[in-house]
Design goal:
The chain is built from 12 helices and 13 strands. By secondary structure, it is of the alpha+beta class.
Length: 381
């Protein structure tokens, strides 16, 4: 993107004959059935932040926070991973985008992922022709780099013939209506009772951008108890820096002490509570429920209309916790373009392969998880 004479192109080198044909087509003027103007696939330069990309993402009905160019900066600065941001263009107009990262390292596999850490991604396109060309360019890139899997974190399946995990992940969403009692009434009775009890416990809530240290301590504890490696500190620092108007904390205090905190992202009129931690001793106060109720209660007046509770694996504790809020459940159809007989990756913590490692992790001191966790998370695709 940017000026025409500066637009980088993808190089057709070290490709199989089939991939070279795809690559050559994607770099030239391509005519497909039903397409009246040629489509061209281009790649963003590493430092190219032309506004057309984000404009396309923000106006596309399936665009998400994690498609934005800002997320490229967050991941690149945190993990040092190589980004491949591809877009389809016709007569100067963007017709589709695909953010990709070369992710993963030993002892895990290597993949092209759209996108790391985020729960959504994949191809955004105005039509099937643009989507097909972007997929072909991604596959050719994978072959050139000797990568055997391209992962699309799509909410819906774009390619019926592609390997799909349609029953593993769901997200939960709720419409914000700006009426406290009506909003509360949408929550099932048992969870509603917990929220009312929490409100009588003299909890204090505030949105801020200052509670990073408290967040890191509480979140590291929560992840350790789940058996999950801690993310690098830079992920959170960069999120705050890159998204000054679209990232903050919601902190819950009891007797002046922070007992729960959530780091949130915002996109269009959607609230995305993304990383959350609550002190174990605060659970009896109902803080787990209360922190999300605060977002539901106050979100409308802050200008938001949708609460996105985020991704959960079906059948897990987090899944059942979110179901108790009575929100609509929406499946996520992640897809995998597999090369050279590769199998779909299975990084699910319910995978028996990781059971022993998870139990060991849960016994580690918090300080050790903060030190070792980022090293591990940098290697997970």
């Amino acid at each position: 993107m940017g000026h025409a004479d500066r637009r980088p192109t993808l190089k057709a080198c070290h490709l199989s004959a089939e991939s070279a044909e795809i690559w050559a087509h994607s770099l030239g003027c391509v005519s497909l059935p039903g397409v009246t103007t040629p489509l061209i696939i281009r790649a963003l330069d590493e430092n190219d932040d032309d506004a057309r990309w984000d404009d396309f993402v923000r106006t596309h009905p399936e665009g998400t926070f994690f498609h934005l160019l800002g997320w490229r900066r967050v991941i690149a600065r945190t993990y040092g991973r190589r980004a491949h941001y591809l877009y389809a263009e016709s007569e100067g107009q963007v017709e589709g985008v695909l953010p990709l990262f070369d992710s993963g390292d030993r002892p895990f596999s290597r993949s092209l992922v759209s996108v790391p850490v985020g729960v959504s991604g994949g191809i955004l396109a105005n039509d099937d022709a643009a989507a097909t060309l972007l997929r072909g360019a991604a596959r050719a890139l994978a072959e050139r780099e000797r990568i055997r899997c391209v992962e699309y974190k799509s909410e819906r399946a774009l390619f019926p013939e592609m390997a799909t995990k349609a029953d593993l992940y769901v997200t939960f969403r709720e419409t914000l209506i700006g009426d406290r009692e009506k909003q509360l009434a949408k929550i099932p009775r048992k969870s509603r009772a917990v929220i009312r009890a929490a409100e009588r416990s003299h909890l204090r809530a505030d949105f801020n951008r200052d509670d990073l240290e408290a967040f890191l301590d509480i979140y590291a504890l929560s992840l350790r108890n789940l058996g999950t490696p801690m993310f690098p500190r830079a992920l959170f620092e960069q999120s705050l820096q890159v998204f000054p108007g679209a990232c903050d904390f919601l902190s819950i205090r009891h007797a002046g002490r922070i007992v729960g905190v959530v780091m949130n992202y915002y996109f269009r009129d959607v609230m995305l509570p993304f990383y959350a931690g609550v002190l174990p001793e605060a659970r009896d106060l109902g803080v787990n429920n209360y922190v999300y109720w605060v977002m539901l209660e106050r979100g409308y007046d802050r200008g938001f209309r949708t609460f996105d509770f985020g991704r959960s694996k079906v059948g897990t504790g987090a899944y059942h916790f979110k179901r108790h809020f009575g929100m609509r459940e929406e499946p996520l159809a992640y897809q995998y373009d597999l090369l050279d007989g590769a199998e779909m990756p299975n990084m699910n913590p319910t995978n028996p392969r990781y059971e022993k490692a998870i139990k060991t992790w849960q016994r580690l001191p918090i300080a050790a998880t903060k030190l070792v966790g980022p090293w591990i998370s940098r290697r997970i695709p």
